[in-house]
Design goal:
The protein has 174 residues and is an alpha/beta fold. The chain has a single domain, classed as 3-Layer(aba) Sandwich (Rossmann fold), CATH 3.40.50.1240. The protein contains seven helices and five strands. The protein has a five-stranded mixed β-sheet with strand order 3-2-4-1-5, with helices on both faces. The radius of gyration is 15 Å and the shape is globular. The model has no long low-confidence stretch (mean pLDDT 95).
């Protein structure tokens, strides 16, 4: 099984480095251009599984455009819920502790452990359901980080410093 993981293309909030977890916003003009030029367009998956958030849906649709590739939406691929931090600058000093601690939940939001608790069983499920297929997952920054930790041994420092760029593709095989 081959799994391609694509982080959605840019949004105004990602460009401005503002927390955007559960807020359902579209791609920015830059993100729309990234989607048209993405190396993900050259993938040939048997199926695309995408977060239902608009920015991921738009990226998934760009990958499938003009081809007979089914897109399935699954809420387990959504971004980490940043709770009370949603819509605030990522640079806020009190945010670092939440970004660098697996079990610490954002106030009224999620921890990385919460994200892993939904992503890991999802990955187990798709590995069984789509054995031998090429799967494309379209998701978000925190989810992509957790997906990587599922497939690759990572130290805490490697986990916290890993960031898949908007529109980028990572490939895993199992």
């Amino acid at each position: 099984m081959k799994i391609y993981v694509v982080r959605h293309c840019s949004t105004v909030r990602s460009e401005q480095k503002i927390f955007c977890g559960s807020t359902d916003i579209p791609l920015s003009p830059r993100g729309e251009e990234e989607a048209k030029a993405s190396s993900a367009l050259h993938l040939s998956p048997d199926v695309i599984l995408s977060s239902p958030l608009l920015r991921a849906r738009q990226t998934a649709e760009a990958i499938a455009d003009g081809r007979d590739i089914p897109i399935l939406y699954d809420a387990r691929l959504r971004e980490r819920d940043f709770g009370d931090f949603e819509g605030t600058p990522c640079s806020r000093p009190d945010g670092k502790a939440y970004r660098r601690n697996m079990g610490l939940r954002y106030p009224n939001g999620e921890s990385y452990l919460d994200v892993a608790a939904r992503i890991y069983p999802f990955l187990d499920e798709i590995r069984a359901r789509f054995a031998g297929k090429r799967i494309c997952l379209v998701s978000h920054g925190s989810a992509c980080r957790v997906i990587r930790s599922y497939f690759a041994e990572m130290t805490d420092e490697e986990f916290y410093s890993y960031s898949q760029p908007n529109g980028a593709v990572e490939e895993y095989e199992r």
